[in-house]
Structure formats: structure tokens, C-alpha cells
Amino acid sequence: MRITTLAAAAAFAFAGSLALAAEPAQAIRQNLLALQPDMPIESIAESPVAGLYQVQLAGGRQLYASADGQFLLHGYLYQVQNGQAVNLTEQAQSKAIARQIEAIDRKDMVVFAPAEAKTHITVFTDTDCGYCQKLHSEVPELNRQGIEVRYLAFPRQGLGSHGAKTLASVWCAKDRQAAMNLAKARKDVPAASCDSPIAGQYQLGQMIGVQGTPAIVLADGQVIPGYQPAAQLAELALRAGK
Question: How is 198-241 classified by DSSP, letter by letter?
Fold first, then answer.
């Protein structure tokens, strides 16, 4: 009887602790949704700082809040380790972005794969972008170094732009690689239409903070805004893929 009583008491205490743990998340969520009803909150959890909660938003963005949800922080949280400042916010954002990118089906990308891939990069691209065209000319060199190049569409001028129409024709082509090569060489791509993933990819790019092209996402979720020469990009990609 004593054991049963103790077990029941322990279970009650555990349930109580769960309820207390849930209260801050509920309060934070309610306050944030009162500020912005469509705020894309994915999760709320304790941060490494006592009394401070980490709010994970869609797209990898992070907010920090007090347990009652009345105080909010938007910025980087650093931890000093062995005399070095580690950006915990950036680490969390990269992990979230990597998860979202890896969830995309390869059939919805335009992929240039080497014989043996060591790692990959995912590039938000616009066929009308000069630096995107320059990066594309270096894809064979990236492939040679074992880096798979995966393209996602990001029409900089919006979904009604000339770039968006060209991207749709690329994604709807029977041979996407050949169509991408034509587009990046500033040649006409035969018009094609289908139920393409262009709009969803454009929205995803906006969610993770893409503002221009090319925007390069490494395997670990780190986002590189803008063109990088093949040698430099390969070094970053191989390091991120370890």
C-alpha cells in the first residue's frame, strides 16, 4: 500500500510539473498570436538561459520570450565557451533551415549531380540573374569536386514576372537540366506549363530570409547570400557537409 501511495504521489507530482512546464508555452503563444494572429509558431521550448524561452518560427527564425510572454527579444543569443562566443541563435536557425530543405522532394528540384557526391548545396535561383548565370557556368567544376547542385526557384520580381515564367518553363520541361542550361545561357526556353512547385519554393525562400539571388544553402543549413567563386564555395560546402 505504501509503495502504491508513493507511486501515486510521484505520478501526481510529475503531472503537476508537466502542467507548469506547459503554462509558459501557452502564455507565450497566446501573447504572440494576440500581436499577430498568423504568426507561424512551430515550437516553444526552454532556451539555455534560465527563465528565457526560445520560440521557433517557420523558416528558421527565432524569438525569445519571458515565461509569461510579456517580454520579447529578437536578436542573437551567444554563449561564451573557452573564450569564444558561439552564436546559438544562428545554429538553431541553420538546423531548422536544413530540415526544411531536406524535406523537399528531389523531383521538385533541378539537380546537377556528380558521379559520386560528397555533399550538396541548394541554390535559390532566378534565370534572369547575372550572378546566377555565372554560378551556373561553374556547376561542372563544383560537380567535379563532388558537390551536388540542387536548384530551387526564386523569381526576384515576383510570380508574375518574366523570370517566373521562364522558371516555370524550366521546371515543366521534359529535360529540366537542358532547359536550365538554355536559360542560364540567356537563350530562349520553349514555353511549357504544368503544376509546377515554383510558387511554393518562392514562398519558402521568403520565409527563410532570401532577398536576392543566388542564395546558397549549405548542407548544414547555413545560408550564403550571393555568388561565391567555385573554389571558395566548394571549400565551404565540403566543410559544411562533414
Answer: HHHHHHHHHHTT--SS-EEEETTS-EEES---HHHHHHHHHHHT
Cross-strand pairs, 151: 110, 123
Task: List, in sequence order, every residue forming a beta bridge with 112; answer none if it has no partner.
Answer: 149
Considering the domain boundaries, does residue 102 fall inside one?
no
Intervals of the chain under pLDDT 70: 1-22
Strands 119-125 and 147-153: parallel
Number of domains composing the chain: 2
Active site (catalytic) residues: 126, 129, 132, 156
Residue 70, helix vs strand vs coil: coil
pTM of the model: 0.82
Closest-CA residue to 54 (of 38, 41, 35, 40): 41
> What range defines the domain where residue 236 resides?
107-240
The answer to whether position 79 is within a domain reads yes
pLDDT tens for 103-113 read 999 999 999 99
The beta-carbon contacts of 155-159 under 8 Å, at least 24 apart in sequence, are 155/126, 155/198, 155/202, 156/126, 156/128, 156/129, 156/212, 156/213, 157/128, 159/198, 159/199, 159/202
Residues 54, 148, single domain; the answer is: no
How far is the C-alpha of 240 from the C-alpha of 230, rounded, in Å? 15
